[in-house]
Amino acid sequence: MFKTILVPLDGSERAERILPYVQELALRFNSIMVLIQVVEPHIDFSGSQAAHQDEALENFKRESKQAEVYLKGLKDLLEEKGLHVQVEVAYGEAIRPIIDIAKGMSVDLIAMTSQGKTGLSRVFYGSVTAGIIHQVDRPLLLIRAQGDGEFANMEAYMYTTVLVPLDGSKRAERILPYVERLAVGFNSKVIFLQVIETTYAYMSPYTFYTDAGLEKAGREHSMPQSG
User: DSSP state, 168?
Assistant: First the structure.
């Protein structure tokens, strides 16, 4: 558990916001971090696109080289902190290479942010994250890509409290071994939560009670009586 952690990146600072969380896990559990960046070819040898293939091929080569340099730089920085790091440049549609490498390397966890590069032509994590959630067959650590400045003093609260929503099913309880390992490793406080839906409305001969009305009635009933 947590022996190998796959970290998809796209070169953006937003995507890199997953790294502190993975670093803490990797240091605590002596994990191997596998950094991956997917380069999409964007080459089409049919129709009107054929005339632009030389340019597309050059762009593909440039992006591939940039990905190699980018990942190598991160690898060097992380290894200076005592982490075990591997890097991988993959090619194709963004989702499939990530899933294939996760299976091929038998990674224990995929860790990524909810969104990477911005701009309609460079969106990566929005659709990729959704695709991975629906197709992946192993645990996924997903960090919301928050706004600038919201990560100040992040280390002060990282993994200190873990909220575990459950619904009473065995499927939901499959998270528990991971929570246990995390809580033991970080001495975390664990809060178990089960939500009971109260979507009913209650009628009486005197009044109509909604959920809010029942709550108010309960408060009034519990108030001490004077005299």
Answer: S
| Torsion from C-alpha of 66, 68, 69, 73, nearest 10 degrees | 140
Q: What is the per-residue pLDDT across 95-144, written as a single tens digit (0 to 9) for each?
A: 889 999 999 999 999 999 876 554 433 444 557 777 888 888 889 998 87
Q: Is 30 strand, coil or helix?
A: coil
Q: How far is 140 from 136, CA to CA, in rounded Å? A: 8
**Cα dihedral sign, 37-127-138-183:** positive
Domain assignments of the chain as residue spans, ordered by start: 4-158, 160-227
The continuous run of DSSP H or E covering 5 comes out as strand 4-9
Judged by DSSP in three states, 109 sits in strand
3-state DSSP assignment of residue 80: coil
Query: What is d(CA 21, CA 182) in angstroms, rounded to the nearest whole number?
Result: 12
Q: Which CATH number fits domain 4-158: 3.90.1720.10, 3.40.50.620, 3.10.180.10, 3.40.50.1000?
A: 3.40.50.620
pLDDT at 214: 52
- Per DSSP, the three-state class of 178 is helix
What is d(CA 14, CA 27) in angstroms, rounded to the nearest whole number?
22
pTM: 0.76
